Structure formats: structure tokens, C-alpha cells
Automatic annotation (TrEMBL):
Cofactor(s) listed in the protein's UniProt record: Fe(2+)
Name of the protein in question: Alpha-ketoglutarate-dependent dioxygenase AlkB
Co-factor binding comment: Binds 1 Fe(2+) ion per subunit.
Amino-acid positions noted as binding Fe cation in the UniProt annotation, renumbered to this chain: 144, 146, 200
TM ranges: 152-173
Ranges for domain Fe2OG dioxygenase: 126-226
Length: 226
């Protein structure tokens, strides 16, 4: 990282943690930004809330319409949950595993998502869905667009917790070679506007240990579905 971009990150003592970095922003494409370490200060609260969601709606490996079992385990909270099965991809207000509505979106989830969106230039973000992705070593997400939402005016807000991952972020065509961005604990990616339908994915997770999550990465992806 260039010296100028590195300066000033080590002011975590302001937040009482001498190891913590102050957040900074990294624009990656028109309408797309990585808010580095933005969620660190609330990571513990996010993880505690995530555990409660998972207790009510356990992580599961969904099957794609093509019949492949996804390597990433998923669950949801909020009004709508993203699901996949042999019939296709869709948003469903009911968890098909339990027949009950998805757990409500925890307040801290909404706060972090709204703040991140506003910081990235998308005020008044009102997500109705939070897809929670659990990556164990080897799990990956192939290049795709988030396009099951009826409202494409709202951005996607994506929070990384735990083990680092390589985020692949390309253009509006699948054929465009994606750039690779390491995502760390507390990083928040926001993409919308001209980048809303950018192809993106996550490279296979490397083995590791993170003090906050152990051997896994948790990603929270917030969407306005309609
Ligand atoms: O895990 C990530 O960082 C990205 C997740 C994602 O692209 C998705 O859930 O659609
Ligand atoms: Mn996605």
C-alpha cells in the first residue's frame, strides 16, 4: 500500500484499542467502494446478533437450480430471505427449512448497513433482506451478479467478518477479468449506481484462524429487494 494511503490508520487508540486501525475508504469502480475496517468497532455486536439469528434459522447449504450444492452455507434475516433450490433463485418471506418467517434484522445490522451505504453515497438505504454467508476453508462464490432484486436503484452492502478472503470484482460483462481485493475483518463493500450489476465473487477461502470467528468467514449482504 502506498505510504500516503497507509498514514493515519494507526489511530485506533482513539477507540480504546491500540491494535485497531481507523477506517479508510478505497474507491474501486464508479459507484463502488471498500470501506476498510468500517465495521470493526461493532464486530462483536454483529457477531453476537448473528449467533442469535443462526440459532433461529440455522446455516444450510442451498442447492442451485442446476443441482449443485453450494460450498457457502447460508441463512437470512429480515423481511425477505434469498433462497435457491431446483426451482430457481428467489426472495421468500418464509424460511423453507422451518416454515416460519426469517428472524428479524437485528438493530446493529441495520445501523451498520445504513451508515456504510450513506458513507458510500447512498443515503436512506432501507434493506429488507440480509443474506448471511458462512465460508469454511475451500468455500467460494463463483462470479455472479446480484440481480434477483426488483429495486436496482439501491446498492448492495456487504460486511466481512473473521477470516480474510479475496473479493473478485469485475465489470458488467462476465467476460471482463475481475480485479482481486483482499477483504479483512470489518471491511464493508458497497456497490450501486453504475456498478450495481457488476460481476463479483469470492475466491476459495484459505485456512486460518481469526480471533473473532475461529476458522470461518462470515459475510452479511444487505439488499433492498423491492
Ligand atoms: O461473501 C462476499 O463477500 C460476497 C457475497 C455475495 O456476493 C453474495 O452473497 O451475493
Ligand atoms: Mn453477490
Amino acid at each position: 500500500m502506498p505510504e500516503a494511503a497507509g498514514a493515519g490508520h494507526l489511530s485506533g487508540h482513539l477507540f480504546g484499542d491500540p491494535e485497531a486501525e481507523a477506517p479508510w475508504d478505497e474507491a474501486i469502480a464508479p459507484g463502488a467502494v471498500l470501506l476498510r475496517r468500517h465495521a470493526c468497532a461493532r464486530a462483536e455486536a454483529l457477531l453476537a446478533a448473528a449467533r442469535e439469528v443462526v440459532a433461529a434459522a440455522p446455516m444450510r447449504h442451498l442447492v442451485t437450480p442446476g443441482g449443485q450444492t453450494m460450498s457457502v452455507a447460508m441463512t437470512n434475516c429480515g423481511e425477505w430471505g434469498w433462497v435457491s433450490d431446483r426451482r430457481g433463485y428467489r426472495y421468500d418471506p418464509v424460511d423453507p427449512a422451518s416454515g416460519r418467517p426469517w428472524p428479524p434484522m437485528p438493530a446493529v445490522f441495520l445501523e451498520v448497513a445504513r451508515e456504510a451505504a450513506a458513507r458510500a453515497g447512498y443515503p436512506d438505504f432501507a434493506p429488507q433482506a440480509c443474506l448471511m454467508n458462512l465460508y469454511r476453508p475451500g468455500a467460494r462464490l463463483t462470479l455472479h451478479q446480484d440481480r434477483d432484486e426488483l429495486d436496482l436503484a439501491a446498492p448492495i452492502v456487504s460486511v466481512s467478518l473473521g477470516l480474510p478472503a479475496i473479493f473478485l470484482f469485475g465489470g458488467l460483462l462476465r467476460s471482463e477479468r475481475p480485479r482481486r481485493y483482499p477483504l479483512q475483518h470489518g471491511d464493508v463493500a458497497v456497490w450501486g449506481g453504475p456498478s450495481r450489476l457488476a460481476f463479483h465473487g469470492v475466491a476459495p477461502l484459505a485456512e486460518g484462524h481469526h480471533p473473532a470467528t475461529g476458522a470461518v468467514r462470515l459475510n452479511l449482504t444487505f439488499r433492498k429487494t423491492r
